[in-house]
Amino acid sequence: MKKKQNITLKALAKTLDLSISTVSRALNDHPDISWETKERVKTLADKHNYVPNLFASGFRSHRTHILGVIVPNISHYFTTTILKGVLEEGENLGYRVIISESKNDEKKQSEMLRTMVQFGVDGVLMALSRKTKSVDEILKVMNRLPLVMFDKVSGKIPCTEVVINEEEAAYNAVEHLINTGKRRIAIIKETEGSYNSEKRYQGYLRALKEYHIPVDEKIVLSTEDISLAKGRMMANILLSLKTRPDAIFAITDSAAIGVIKALNKFKVKIPEEIAVVGFSNSASSTIINPSLTTVDQPGNKIGRTAVKYLIDEIENPKEDMFSKTIEIKTNLIVRDSSFKA
Amino acid sequence: MKKKQNITLKALAKTLDLSISTVSRALNDHPDISWETKERVKTLADKHNYVPNLFASGFRSHRTHILGVIVPNISHYFTTTILKGVLEEGENLGYRVIISESKNDEKKQSEMLRTMVQFGVDGVLMALSRKTKSVDEILKVMNRLPLVMFDKVSGKIPCTEVVINEEEAAYNAVEHLINTGKRRIAIIKETEGSYNSEKRYQGYLRALKEYHIPVDEKIVLSTEDISLAKGRMMANILLSLKTRPDAIFAITDSAAIGVIKALNKFKVKIPEEIAVVGFSNSASSTIINPSLTTVDQPGNKIGRTAVKYLIDEIENPKEDMFSKTIEIKTNLIVRDSSFKA
DNA sequence: CTGAAAGCGCTTACAG
DNA sequence: CTGAAAGCGCTTACAG
Fold first, then answer.
1. Which residues contact B92 (CB under 8 A, 6 or more apart)?
2. From the centroid of its chain, how far is CA B290?
3. Which domains does chain B have, with CATH numbers?
4. Taking the CB of the first residue and of the last residue of chain B, which one, N or C, has fewer CB atoms within 10 A?
C-alpha cells in the first residue's frame, strides 16, 4: 500500500504526554479544556500537519459529510450549472459531493439510490429521471435519509422541492410574443406530460386565455423525446398548415433551434413572419442565427438552494416529512428571434 | 437522527448462533467456510436485506473505494463527456466518484487535493488548471496516493497521463485544409503556451513543413483566454491584412465559431474564400452556419481509460513512479466550413 | 471448519 | 480540568 499514514491522535497524545481524549477535545475546542492545553495541542498538531481521519470520525458519528446527487444526464448544460451550484455551496458548508448519472433509466436510478444509502451519504439530492413510474424505492430511502429534489420532481414524493417557476416563465414568454403583436402562437411540447412540459403548457394556456386568444389545437404540437431534430420536424408540419402560425414557442432550446434551422431553410423571415422562443438559455442560443429569445434558468441558484435545504434537513432533522416547494425566478432573455430593435 | 440502522454482522451472527467472524467470512466467500454455512448465512443476509457498512470496512481496510476527480470547469462539454466515462467505468469497477472544480485556480486546486487526501480517497484523477505554476503540492500527494492525469497534463509530474494525440490531430486538420487547396493557413492559439495549445501548434508547423509551405508569422495569432469573442477579434485582424489567409485553424471550437461569426458579418464566403477548422466537436459546431469542421475528441474513452489506469495503480501498487503517456486517437469531422460537397 | 480477540482512529458518557 | 474505557461495524492473524 502506498498510502503513508497521517499522524494520529494517539501519536500526538504520546508526545504531549496527554490522553487521547484530551487531545481530541482540545482540537475540537471543547469548553472543558484549558486554554493553555488547547494551545499546546494545536501548535503540535499544526507542526505535524495533523488532519483528522474523516473516515474514522464519520464512522464513529454516523455522519460522512458526503452528499449524493443523482441527475439524469450530466452533460446537459443546465444540469452542469446546477451541479456547479451544488459543489460550491456544498463545499462552503463542509460537504463533499458524489455525483451519479441515472441516464433516464428508472432501474439504474433506484440502484444508485441504494448504493448511496449503503455508502453512507448524509443526504440525497436528485432530479427524477424521465418517465419514472414508481417512486416506491425513493419513498423507502426517504425513511432513512433526508432527500431534496430539484428540476424534475414528482408530486408523489413528500419532500422539499426546488424548481423554477415553470408556469410563470412560460406565461411570460408567451406574453412577450403577444406584446410584439403575435396572435397565432404555436407550442411544441412533450407528449407524455413531464412535470416541466405540463407546467409550461399551462403557462401557455393561461397567457392565451388572459389575452382572449382562442386555443387552436392544430398548432399545439406534442412530441416524444423532444430534440433539435423533432423541432425541425414540427416546424415543417407548422409550415405546411393552411394558416401558418406567426410565432412558435418551443419548450426547450434544442427544439427551438431545430425550428429556426427549418425556418431558415425555407427562407421564412424570423421574427417578422414567424417569431421563435425557446427555454433554457443554453450556450447554443447565441450561436444560432438569428439569436434565440429564451428563458434563462438560474441553475447555480437552484443548486445552491437545494443544497442549503438538504443540509438544513441533515443538521436539524424533523420527524414529519412534508412537501415544500421553493420556486426560483427565471428571466426572459429577448434576442433577435422574437424582436428586432 | 433519521438514519435507520441497517442490520449488522453482529445481529446476523446472533440469530444464526455463529460468530461474527464466521458470518463475515461466509459473506466474503472465504474458502475456509463450509458450503452449508455459507448458504445459511447468505440466505439470512438476503432475507434481512443486509448491506455491509462500507464505511466500517473502508475504515478498517484503509480503502474507501472513492476516487477523487479534479477538473478546471465542470460545464465544458468536453469535460462532461470525460466525466461520463469516469463515472461509468468507475461504477463498473466498484468505485464511487467525488468531483471537484478547481475553477482554474491553482490555490483552490491544491486545497482540493489536500481535502481529498484527508478524506481518504483511494486515488485521484485530475486535469491541471490553466497556468499551474507549481506542482509541489501535487508531487506531495503522489507520495501518498495513486494519481492519473488527463487532458491538461504537465511534464513535471511523473505519473500516468491520458491525453489525445494533440499534435497529430492538429496535423490532420491542417493537412485536410492543404488537401482542399488551401495554402495560406492562419492559426489562432493561446499566448501562454498551455500543453494543449503548444502541441496543436506543433502539429500545425509540421503540416506546413511537410507540404513545404512557409510559416508566415503575420497569420500566427495568439491570444489569452481563448474564447468566442477573441476568435471574432482575431478574425477581424486577419481580414484587415493586405493578403488575407485562405483558411483559419482555431485551436478551440469557440474561437472557430467566433471566426465564422466575423466572416459571416463581412459576407466572406466560407469555405470558398476562407475555410475554418476548429477543435473539440462541441455541440455548437453543428448549430453554427456553416457547420464547423472540427476534431472530435473521444471524451468518454479518455475518462474510461484514465479510470482503468488509476484503479490498476490502486489495486496493484508499484514502488517506483514513472511517466507513462497514453494517447487516445481523435477523428477529424469534415463539415461545411471547410468543404462543400 | 469455526471462534475469540485485537484493532482501524476517533468521540463521548462516565468518573474523578 | 483531565483520563480510562467503551464502542462505532467490520476484518483478519492467531489459535484450536
1. none
2. 28
3. 9-52 (no CATH), 65-164+299-328 (3.40.50.2300), 166-297 (3.40.50.2300)
4. C
Per the document, the length of chain A is 341
pLDDT higher at A56 or A23: A23
The answer to whether A130 and A194 have CB atoms below 8 angstroms apart is yes
What is the mean pLDDT of the segment spanning A54-78? 83
Cα separation, B71 vs B102, whole angstroms: 6
* B85 residue type, one letter: G
Distance from CA of A209 to the nearest CA of B (A): 35
Bridge partners of A100, per DSSP, are: A70
Q: How far apart are CA A181 and CA A247, in angstroms?
A: 10
- pLDDT tens for residues B318-337? 766 678 999 999 999 999 99
Tell me if residue A267 falls in helix, strand or coil: coil
DSSP B40-90: HHHHHHHHTT----HHHHHHHHT---EEEEEES-TTSHHHHHHHHHHHHHH
The answer to whether A278 and A297 have CB atoms below 8 angstroms apart is: no
Min CA distance, A98 vs chain B (Å)? 5
**Would you state the torsion angle of the CA atoms of residues B31, B36, B39, B44, taken in this order, to the nearest 10 degrees?**
-120
Say if CB B259 and CB B276 are below 8 A apart: yes
Residue of B nearest to A320 (CA): B2
Closest CA relative to residue A317, chosen from A54, A139, A63: A63
- Angle at which helix B9-16 crosses helix B35-47, to 10 degrees, equals 120
Burial grade of B296 (CB within 10 A; 0-12, 13-18, 19 or more): middle
Please give the nucleotide, over all strands, whose C1' is closest to the CA of residue B41: C2
Pick out the nucleotide with least CA–C1' distance to A9. C9
CA gap B319, B328 in Å, rounded: 26
3-state secondary structure A119-147: HCCCEEEECCCCCCCCCHHHHHHHCCCCE
- The two beta strands, B324-328 and B160-164, are parallel
Q: What count of other Cβ atoms lies within 10 Å of the Cβ of residue B283?
A: 17
CB contact under 8 A, B317 and A1: yes
Protein-to-nucleotide distance from the CA of A24 to the C1' of D8, whole angstroms: 16
Which of chain B's residues have a Cβ under 8 Å away from the Cβ of A232? none
Residue at A111: amino acid letter:
E
Q: Which nucleotides of D are covered by protein (CB under 7 A)?
A: 1-5, 7-13
- Do A84 and A299 meet the contact criterion of CB atoms below 8 Å apart? yes
In whole angstroms, give the CA distance from residue A220 to residue A191. 11
Say if residue A257's pLDDT is above 50: yes
Chain A 26..45 CB hits on strand D (< 7 A)? 32-37
> Using CA atoms, how far apart are residues B266 and B324, in angstroms rounded to an integer?
47
Closest nucleotide to B20, Cα to C1': C3
Q: How far apart are the first and last CA of chain A?
A: 66
CA distance B212 to chain A (A): 36
Please choose, from the candidates B119, B98, B11, the residue with its C-alpha nearest in 3D space to the C-alpha of residue A58: B119
> Most confidently modeled of A164-173, B128-137, B194-203?
A164-173
Q: Which of B335, B292, B289, B282 is nearest to A290 (CA)?
A: B289
Top-ranked range on mean pLDDT: pick from B26-30, B106-110, B263-267: B263-267
Q: Assign A319 a pLDDT band (cuts: 50, 70, 90).
A: low
d(C-alpha B117, C-alpha B107), whole Å: 16
- Average pLDDT of the segment spanning B285-306: 97
Output the distance from B21 CA to C2 C1' rounded to whole Å.
8
